[in-house]
Design goal:
alpha+beta; 7-stranded mixed β-sheet; 6-stranded mixed β-sheet; 11 helices; 19 strands
Length: 470
């Protein structure tokens, strides 16, 4: 394990939209849709973008840093909710996003003596070192009868590793943006940083809340869950059970699933189905194949590490996010700012997942769930929040963060493509982070945070499982 680095704070400031900027109003209120509200129960996303930067501190502070701040300011002019806050009111008040001119984003700049190569690798690394790269972002507030809690939505930290690299770290609440919206935000910031000109009107953000239609009156159901949370715990965004509860001796590692490995897993599933005279699972996509293989490898590592022999007949859950743009019955602009996703929850008996046909069971459970969402994304949606609570409270659940369909590795601030992307938000949540591969076309990077002994077991099962495939 690497020793914790020493940090030198270079600057702490606030970045706002440019003076005299043309945001729509002096004070702008943006209501939450029913697709935003479930994200109030999820902890912040904390992505880290590592870039090679072979220049000294003087070059960074005189050239690169002013450009990053200015380009962020220009970006906030377009994506102004990110500079605003969530207003959380007790029942019957509805939560909403609010932006006032002068609102800003906390922006911290630090210098670190940590090993940039170590942090931006794929092998096992101590999670504690990554905590120094993540900006602070409040997740709580205390609404009173006459006053709403106000919770910021975004913060930024730039960490310089002199003559080696830069890490751009963000923390943002999902209630303001799904992965697609965040991708549009970060790409706009990067574009301004590279070119400093205004993007074309075709990619300007859309704030038309009428684009999100609530055909099954889900907003009322979700609001009741949120008001229940506020009345009992106050205005807390996120999962109160697992968020930030990271045990000691945890390590982070990244595993690559390339197209060749996916094809071998698919052939393995086909051979098992032929042997057992079973039909092939539906929808054996790259995503399903990767998730199924990672799921059974995780369960096997749990068995070894936690000795879960008593849980053989228990349901195991695998949760993931399903994009809504292609699944809704009406068009939604690709530049829509907000959430347009649904939730999928696959389930299977643990003993069956651990059996000889475990990969078939996992692929069938996930693939069937994907197909159900394709046909009816809001099927069972009234249970989205309660189902997530069950998963959060179960030691057996797995959730997916991120999406390999979002090309985050194309985020170029004028520094080139990122050397590595990490999601610190999965720490302590029993989630896996998926992103597209940086270097392998069609590949998927799988990010995990586990106790070191369990990570060792997972690595063994992952490698042995792939080697055993036909």
């Amino acid at each position: 394990m690497a020793q914790l680095s020493k940090l030198n704070v270079i600057e702490q400031c606030q970045v706002s939209t440019p003076q005299n900027s043309s945001t729509p109003q002096a004070c702008y209120h943006l209501p939450l849709t029913f697709l935003d509200i479930p994200w109030l129960f999820f902890s912040p996303s904390q992505p880290l973008f590592f870039y090679e930067f072979p220049y000294p501190t003087s070059h960074f502070t005189s050239i690169t840093l002013p450009n990053l701040k200015h380009s962020l300011s220009l970006t906030l002019q377009l994506f102004y909710p990110f500079a605003g806050a969530l207003l959380a009111r007790p029942e019957p008040g509805k939560p909403e996003l609010v932006y006032s001119q002068g609102d800003s984003v906390a922006f911290t700049v630090v210098e670190s003596n940590a090993d940039f190569g170590y942090l931006s690798g794929n092998y096992q690394r101590d999670v504690e070192e990554f905590n120094t790269l993540v900006p602070q972002l409040a997740s709580t507030g205390a609404p009173s009868r006459n006053c709403a809690a106000k919770i910021p939505l975004l913060s930024v930290q730039i960490t310089l590793f002199p003559n080696c690299g830069i890490c751009i770290g963000l923390a943002y609440h999902h209630v303001v943006a799904d992965e697609r919206t965040f991708n549009n935000f970060i790409k706009t910031w990067a574009s301004f940083s590279r070119h400093s000109f205004f993007p074309s009107k075709s990619i300007l953000p859309s704030y038309d809340r009428k684009a999100i239609v609530d055909p099954y009156a889900l907003e009322g159901i979700f609001l009741k869950e949120w008001w229940k949370r506020i009345s009992s715990k106050g205005a807390i965004i996120g999962n109160t059970k697992t968020a930030m509860l990271v045990p000691m001796c945890m390590v982070r590692a990244t595993f690559l699933m390339d197209l060749n490995r996916m094809e071998r897993i698919k052939n393995w599933i086909a051979n098992l189905c032929n042997k057992g005279n079973e039909p092939l699972p539906v929808h054996l996509s790259a995503y399903v194949l990767t998730c199924a293989f990672v799921w059974i490898s995780l369960i096997k590592s749990q068995e070894k590490y936690f000795n879960y022999k008593c849980c053989g007949q228990d349901q195991n859950y695998f949760g993931f996010i399903a994009g809504g743009l292609t699944r809704l019955n009406h068009p939604v602009p690709s530049t829509y700012v907000g959430n347009c996703v649904g939730f999928g929850q696959a389930a299977a008996i643990r003993s069956e997942l651990l059996g000889d046909n475990g990969i078939v069971v996992a692929a069938r459970a996930i693939g069937n769930t994907v197909k159900k969402l394709d046909k009816a994304i809001f099927g069972g949606a009234e249970k989205w929040i309660s189902d997530c609570k069950v998963m959060f409270e179960s030691e057996l659940h797995v959730m997916v963060s991120g999406s390999p369909k979002v090309d985050l590795y194309e985020t170029d601030f004028g520094l080139g493509r990122p050397k590595k992307i990490e999601d610190v938000g999965v720490d302590g949540t029993k989630a896996i982070a998926l992103t597209e591969s940086r270097d392998v076309s069609g590949g998927i990077e799988v990010g995990l945070v586990l106790p070191k002994p369990q990570m060792d077991y997972f690595s063994t099962f992952f490698i042995e499982g792939l080697n055993a495939t036909p």
